[in-house]
Structures are given as structure tokens and as C-alpha cells.
Amino acid sequence: MRPPETSSPTSTVKLLGAVITAPELIWLISAVLVAGLVRGFAGFGSAMIIMPVASSVLPPVEAVIFLIFTEIVGPLPNARAAWRDGAPRDVGLLVAGAVLALPFGIWALSSMDQTLFGWTVSISVIVLLVMTASGMRLRTALTAPITLAAGAVGGFMTGFAGLPGPPVIMLYMASRLPVAVIRANFLLYLLALDVLLALLLWIYGLMVWLVGLLGLLVGLPNLAANIIGARLFDPSAERFFRTVAYIVIAASAIIGLPIWKG
Q: What tens digit of pLDDT does each residue of 224-237 get?
């Protein structure tokens, strides 16, 4: 899989200049702050909030780069607690599946046009909403093959849409696991995927470091929001946790519809 040619440094600087001076930057920063609160509380959801906004301001590859650099910074303060509360073995299976499928997702991303990209992001979120809100529950315990397969689908979606969560969120929200474990596994899996995706984008020659720098800078307030969100989490309030999760999914699906972009 040969990567396509990337934008020249001059065009990238012009692109970032346009983003920084554009009114959309206010919405982008606002989305990142809200995403940090949600990520800190639920362990997931930030990509669903950031990507619809980022994909309306940046081209597909740059939008994904912005997302992963923002998300690498934000969840770090909560990673230690997530390792303690979660199931690292299961997270390892999810990441292993993602490793197998991520290169194919990146190839799809690099070949996709921006309009199709926007529809892909929105449709992915809407499908997740329908499946999770339907009240589906697993009747058996999570097995290694199921976990590995969910990670693979998530890895593919990470590559082409910057959304590693949908299949994994669906799987865990349908399980009988305690919400503290679900939240911790989400956080660890998504953080690992961000690091892995950044590495692969660099290897394939798709990395745009100026956009990554913008993501890191915006990631600082995202970090503070993650800390606040984590303090709001109550492991005994399962119904509230699930309600917040569904609201996040619903809101991101509605906001991300390409029809609002004209």
C-alpha cells in the first residue's frame, strides 16, 4: 500500500493559518473542551464530538491527525487509575485486533474524498446510536475471539474515520461488566489506538506535524477537562453512566450530519 503524496509545507501553513483565524476555531476549541469532559467521565466519546467539527474545518487526514494529538494529551492524567480499574488483558486483545486492521483503514482514508469522509463519520456514529440504544445485551461472557474481532473492526474504523470506538463501545455497553471496568477499558484502548495511529501515519508518510502541533496545543485545555470529567464519574451510578453515553452518541450523530454543512 503506497501512500499518496501529502500536502506541501507551504500549503499546510496556509491551511493552518486559515483555521487559526477562522470563526470555526472557536467551535473546534469548544468541541475539544466538551469532549474532554465526556472522555474523563465516560472513558470515550471525544472522537464523536471532535471529528464532526474537525472534518468540517480540515481535510480528512489532517482532521484525524488533529484528533489523535489532542486525544494523546487529554486522557493521560486518568490512565493510571484506568490501568488499576480495567482489564489490561482484554485491552491487549482489542489493540492486537486493531493492529491487524489499521493499515487497511489508513489506506481507505488516504483514498477517500472529503464529502464521502464526512458522511462516513456521521453514518458510523448513527449506526452506533441505533445499536446501543436498542438495549442489546450479550447473554454470554466476552470471549477472546469476540474481543479480538471488535478490536479489528475498531482499528479499521480508526484508520478511515478516526473513530476507533463504535464496535468496542457497542460490545462493552452490551456486556454485563461493571461500568468502572467498561470505562477504564475504553480509556486504555482508545489511548493505545491514538499512539498506534500516530506511528502508522508517520511511517506511511501521511503525518502533518504542524497540524499535530495544533492538536497538542488544543489538547492542553482538553487535559484539564479530562481531569474534571473523571472527578464527576460515580461507579455506582450505572444508569446515569449509560444515559450520558447515549446522549453523547445521539448529540454527536445529529451535529455531525453533513446536511448542516450546506
A: 999 998 998 888 87
